Amino acid sequence: MKHMGMDNEVVDFDFELHETVRVNEGPFADYTGAIEEIDVEKKKVSVLVDMFGRETPVELDFHQIEKL
Description:
The chain is mainly beta. It is built from no helices and seven strands. It holds the Pfam family KOW. One of its GO terms (biological process) is transcription antitermination.
């Protein structure tokens, strides 16, 4: 619910830092990586995925990841 610019939506987020997850949608779908950062206010995570032999941080919405 939005009221006066505030978002009171409750989000079920059951992940921890450094947990390995799978990306389930978007250009990085099917990549796996470890959660590097969690931003609860923006409902985003930074996941380190292996691209071209290097770990690269990718910013994703909460709904774009799932547990392995």
